[in-house]
Amino acid sequence: MDTEVLSALTQFGVAGMVCAMWLIERRASSIRERQISEAHARLIGQLDDRTALIQVIQENTRALSMLEAGQRGLIDALSGRGGSGAVSR
């Protein structure tokens, strides 16, 4: 706080000092509230990103499972067994 402002407030005695303390507290409180709001917004943004990532992983897992099932069917068809699932070597 500027010394001129502080000296102007101290001329009002204890009431001026209480007022100065209240103003300082309110300013600090508003800064902290803004920081909390910004942190909350970042967390919500990260949640959206994580949800999208999980969805992509689930879709990739489903695609790989389908690919594996198709390859197993192809192996079975080529080996003439029709569905045992084991590959002979």
What does this protein structure show overall?
This protein has one domain (3-79). 83% of the residues lie in helices and 0% in strands. The chain has 2 helices and no strands. Helix 1 (3-10) crosses helix 2. The longest helix is centred in the middle third of the chain and has 66 residues, at 14-79. It is rod-shaped and about 100 Å long.
Overall tally of domains: 1
Number of helices: 2
Q: Separation of termini?
A: 84 Å
**Proportion of helical residues:** over 70%
Query: Unreliable stretches, pLDDT < 50, 5 or more residues?
Result: none
Please compute the radius of gyration using only Cα atoms. 34 Å
Quickly give the structural class: mainly alpha
Tell me the overall shape.
rod-shaped
The total count of strands amounts to 0
Return the average pLDDT rounded to an integer: 85
H/E element string? HH
**Estimated share of beta-strand residues:** under 5%
What's the story with the biggest beta sheet?
Answer: none
Q: What is this structure, in a nutshell?
A:
The protein is an all-alpha fold and 89 residues long. The chain has 2 helices and no strands. The protein has helices spanning 3-10, 14-79.
Give a quick set of tags describing it.
89 residues; mainly alpha
List strands and helices in order, with pairings.
Blueprint: H1 3-10, H2 14-79
